[in-house]
Amino acid sequence: MDYSLLKQFVAVTATVGLYSVLYKENKFYRFWEHVFLGLASGWALVILWTDVLKSGWYEKMLGASAADGNTAVMGYWPYMFLLPIGLMAYTVFNKKHNWLSRIPIGIILGLYSGQQFSAWMTYYGPLLNDSMKPIVPNTAEFFHPATVVPGTVYVSDALTNLIALLTVISVLTYFLFSFDVKSKVLHATSTTGRWLLMIGFGAIFGSTVMMRFTLLIDRMYFIWIEFVKQGLLHMK
Amino acid sequence: MGNQYLDTGWFMMVLTLVMVSLILYNISRAHGGKDLYIRRISGLNAIDEAVGRATEMGRPVLMVPGLSASVNAKTMQAINIFAYVTRVAARFANPIMVCCADATVLTVCQEVIRDVYQQEGLADQYDVDSVRFISDRQFAFAGGVAGLILREKAAATFFLGEFYAESLILAETANSVGAIQVASSTELTQTPFFIAACDYVLIGDEYYAASAFLTRQPVLVGSLIGQDWCKLAMIAMILCGTTFNSIQQRGTTTTEHKEGKWVDLPKERLVLAKDTFFSRLLKADPEKNIKLDPPREKLPPDQLPSGGPAGGDK
Amino acid sequence: MAMDQQAAPLTLAEKLQSLPKPMIYGILLVVATIPLFFSVKLPNKCIDPSIDFYAQAMKLPDGSKVIICSDWTNSTRGESKGEMEALLRILMRKNIKFVLLSIGDPQAPQVAKDTIREVTSAEELHGGKHYKEFEDYVNLGYFPSGEGTIVSINNNVRSVAQGKKDFPEGSGPKDALQSPVFEGIKSVSDFKMFFLVTASSTNRTVLERLTNCPMMYMVSGVMVPENTSYYASGQLKGLCGGVKGVYDLENLMEVGINNPGPGQITSDKYKGESIPGWPGKTNTGKGTAYYLALHFTLALLIIAVIVGNLGMYLSKRRAN
Amino acid sequence: MNLFLQVDPKSFWNAPHGSTELTVKLFAAFIIGIGIAVGLTFIPAQLRKWVVRFVTFGAGLFYVLFWIFPRPISRAPTDAPRGAIEGMSFWIADSQPVIMTLTNVIAGFMIGLGIYSLLRVHFSKIAKQQRDWAFSAVLVISMLLMVTLGYADFLQRQDPANFGLADQKNWGLVNYGKDLLFDGLLQNMDAGMFSIVAFYIMSAAYRAFRARSIEATILLVTALIVMLSLMGVVEFMWSGAIDSISKDNGLIQSFKLSAISGWLKGTIQTPAIRGIDFGVGIGLLAMGLRLWLSLEKTGGEA
Questions:
Q1: Are residues C154 and C279 in the same domain?
Q2: Residue C134 in 3-state DSSP?
Q3: Mind listing the pLDDT tens digit for each residue in B35-46?
Q4: Do the strands C174-175 and B131-133 form a parallel or antiparallel pair, or are they unpaired?
Q5: Mean pLDDT value of segment D177-194
Q6: Angle formed by the axes of helices C48-58 and C224-232, to 10°?
Q7: Which residues are paired to B183 by β-bridges?
Q8: Cβ D105–A108 below 8 Å, yes or no?
């Protein structure tokens, strides 16, 4: 048995092991689940150094030399301060000093929250703009003709834009929390909002199903075509 | 000075600041002791019921704060809700389990959950292993949590936070052991799956409103009302923009805005969406070749960088 | 469960409403497998986002430079690999050099490189060029801090490649910035397009932060609705979503846009233009292989939903 | 000089690679860091909250400045700033590449906590020989194997002399072992677990997609239309039927499946999602603001 076939065999066994949970929880599944968890955390420890700390911290801290022995990149020693900061998190299991763990968390949360303002701005600007489509037609034609003149708002466009506008607004109204929904208009709008949401969710469901099934089909392709047909039976 | 904002436009910056001040103003208003109204959110009333049922059955309550790569606003919100759930569970002396997918989230959860037990005077009931790290790899995490749900027969499950494809693995597994489920994903694409498989789902913004509803902290209530004002402001802006655009797009134009300047068009044409006033306000057109006048001086030779991340545009 | 329910035999309505799960799963397994053994070319209608994607990619000048941000791994192989293959075929046939990087997963660069190797050797069979690492594409590897990296790309793309090593075939590591791909690149706007092939939330990371380069996304099926919104607002020049998008691209590569002939694909948006395809070359891949099975599984789901509702309707009628 | 500008020129904040100066400074930094951490433990309880607040605010302030402070324009790498304001804007632009790595590095140091929590649970199971302890042993063994082989493989590949390892012909036992564990098992288990979702979609849709209420019916019908439109064959036949009725009538033409589903997506789904998104965006903005200013009590009160 050559190596690639062995690799496929192992992979197929593991896949079947995980699939077995569909029938019921069993020891075979439990075995593969624990292998999976073990490998995953082992791998997390590997890439912690190889992909995060080594290039992002250690090498920058120590700098580098060029081939001729001169310094190519200066060592940046203040990075060393990050180690004690990170280590502070380990006080979390200590009853007395656990508050220190809030300092690294505070830094992470601070860096995150500081970015929210610019993120909001760049993200929502174009979306707001796109929600302001014209709702008054500038021609009497209803449907798009064969050649569309740029800038023309056909009646069907205007209607579509109007529905889209009402959708955005009624959904937004549905998410108003500090208003009493006893008001009839507000109640009607937010009920409509909920119905429109369901259309949105239905459409998401429909398109997601495609992906999930594709992944299953891909697994079946792997097991039956790549492993059984091409690997074991050597058929093209 | 204004030039520096050309890539984003000054208007969105002002708008962001307006939103921020609306929220801050309402927080200070709530601090002033005003009693402010928030409407009911149906999924949240189910929390007490779910924990109560878990107690009756003598089975654990399982909570998952999502799959975020490190603590952020989404996980903090989940943890705030879990603090409430834990409080209820602690009073009933019901076992809990929190499954984390990230070490920083684990740290915060440990801290918060222990605090809750201490505040309730039940510090001896707190089990360090009830808050555990499963894996930071998406599907290993899903497999591990699914295994836990099946073996521990969780009676109530709370999936709140950032969930991706694993949402349905968790929700269907919990459904198969008959758990009562409250769920919300900040990823809208997962919401329909939670709707299909869970008992109560917090949709979209309801998730961010939950902690205000549960705890009634003045800061949170005030902030929630501020958020409502922001949403009203956005509705007003959309309506205003639509009206403006509708009027403007009925006309024609002979000039257009290109790379920060007005240029004449060869022929008069209809106003396009990109020509409208609001479009230029919201999507500022970056001006390419800005000249600096007078030019900058050069750095002295001993301070010259030899390349590398010294940045700035171009 | 109530005991008496088990005692009494189930009526048809009840049976239809409570098919055992293992049975449903078993049927799904069979239905997803059998069509894979048959290769059938199904009729299709290309959607606009795919047509835009193809047209915009084809309009890139031959020999120009682009960035590919590849954020998928084997767990979404079924969709993302097909997308990546289609993208690479288009770029390689147009001799476009690219920078490869990933902000989504440490494993993504390796998976992408394997795909590049497969596609380039398949292309060579048809007289295509052999794409060499470092010469024709440069691999910057994985960047753990996605947000910051995209901000840096937007501000100063060279700073991102600073200090990164690439491994040309058959020799030791070299500085990525010395690669011909970075020749004449001063800022990100010197790249003609930013392609993101993703199955995770990096779509928003990029969308929020990259302003100086046009973008096109290739996303998994689940992300289509969300990204359609960005496509509609013009933030994305084109969008290829899921296996349907891949099947569209494979068809477009075969016949192009607005070219008369069998299986012609027309587009009003590109009226008067004719965008060529590559008939005769290997254009089909995972999209064509999986599309038939997808039909059967989708049909099965629809039938299951109908059966459940039929059962509910029957039992309601009995109750009345 | 800029603390966060890590490249040359030589300043107080950097030192040549491999020099004694660098070693001394690194050592001093570590001692000072630990010293500060120890010193913090003596801070009176009522001040602790303020330390955390201050740190959070400071960290957030950088990105707020990065956003709000004018950016340098047309800047060449050799340019000197033209005044205090531009000096600040240069400083911010130069610091960003360093600041952006902080989260990952700090979070990286914390991963040990996660592993500790995991091992604690499983080692205590093994030690007490509780139910399923053998599986815990499996977990620990696979983790050790992965770590050992992963690092061994990585170190081999680090050596520039080993560039031949890119070709499978030159592999040794370590490389095969790592490939089998990672590529053969871990990656395929990822894909396997992911594809399980397809089964769950099937059962969830079968169980929950019943036309019980108006909402459920709407959800069901939309999902069906979109799914049908994704099936090329159905779509093809449907549009064939529509075309056979009339090729020019705009009204009839818009009943094509792709037209309906496209219209649904464009007119209702996209705006609906956008509506939620606007709300969520504001929620996130408010939460970010509260976190930055440490306005809310984590954990909340009863």
A1: yes
A2: coil
A3: 778 888 878 888
A4: unpaired
A5: 92
A6: 60
A7: B159, B201
A8: no
The per-residue pLDDT for D9 is 64
Q: Give the pLDDT mean for A178-190.
A: 77
In this complex, which of C25, C73, C247 lies closest to D190 when CB atoms are compared? C73
Percentage of chain B modeled with pLDDT above 70: 88
Q: Is D157 exposed, middle or buried (0-12, 13-18, 19+ CB in 10 A)?
A: middle
Domain extent, residue D158, equals 116-204
Give the type of residue at A226: E
Asked if residue C43 belongs to a domain, the reply is: no
How is residue D110 annotated by DSSP?
A: T
> How many domains does chain B fold into?
1
Q: How many residues does chain A have?
A: 236
Residue D237 has pLDDT above 70, yes or no: yes
Contact C72, C40 (CB under 8 A): no
Which tokens belong to A102? 């809030």
Q: Does the pLDDT at position B7 exceed 80?
A: no
Crossing angle between the packed helical segments B138-152 and A27-47, to the nearest 10 degrees: 140
pLDDT tens for D135-168 read 999 999 999 999 999 999 999 988 777 777 777 7
Q: Are residues C83 and C230 in the same domain?
A: yes
Dist. CA C218–CA A195, nearest whole Å: 30
Evaluate the omega torsion of the peptide bond into residue C20 and state whether it is cis, within 30 degrees of 0: no
Answer with the one of D175, D204, D233 that is the final residue of a domain. Answer: D204
pLDDT tens per residue across span D23-66: 999 999 999 999 999 999 998 988 988 999 999 999 999 999 98
Q: In sequence order, what are the residues at sequence separation of 6 or more whose Cβ sits closer than 8 angstroms to the Cβ of residue B228?
A: A176, A177, A178, A179
Interface contact A78-D250, CB threshold 8 A: no
Across A5-9, B34-38, B254-258, D38-42, least confident range? B34-38
Helix or strand (DSSP H, E) at B261: strand B261-270
A117/D251 CB distance under 8 A: no
Q: What is the CATH number of the domain that holds C208?
A: 3.40.50
Neighbouring chains of C at 3+ CB pairs under 8 Å are A, B, D
